[in-house]
Design brief:
Layout (H helix, E strand, L loop, with lengths): L3 E11 L4 E5 L5 H5 L3 E6 L2 E13 L2 E6 L5 H5 L5 E5 H6 L8 H4 L3 E4 L4 E10 L4 E7 L4 E5 L7 E3 L4 E4 L8
Parallel strand pairs: 7-12
Antiparallel strand pairs: 1-2, 1-6, 2-5, 3-4, 4-5, 7-8, 8-9, 9-10, 11-12
Amino acid sequence: MNSYISVAKILNFHGIKGEAKLGFSKGREKQISMLKKVFILINGDYAEYNVTSVRFHKKFAIVKFKELNTVNDVEALKGLDILLPKDEVENNLDNDEYLVSDLLDMDVYDDDGCLIGKISQVGENLANNILSVKDNNGKEHLVPFVKDLVPVVDLKQKRVVIKNIEGLIS
């Protein structure tokens, strides 16, 4: 069975011709603009929708689906996620770009090889993503997810190495 990743959410309708207003993560405009076929989980089934056009308005994407032609069609899907097969999303990631689901629960080591803890969450701020690392005592440490501080992300070994500069992990 295919596994799916959410790339956007239907926030509302736009206009009267069945266009949908989508919310998505900052920096994902390229991925959204390339959408052709997507899936929406409806009542436990993955329904396929074909994208006929994408344009951007303010911080949102305005998308026309072949199968949706009225405000009511879009209204019925309001709040649902736009999904893509996980392997399709992975194939389109840039270098040093990772899926949050792949990072969660990875072991985190310092540059001396000592286990610090596990990634419990990945957050987002204006500058960069933030790794939340829970140590063995249950304490959370926030680590900016930048190459200078996180030089190694090994998906196969499920491990991350961080440079433990003074004050980062206390």
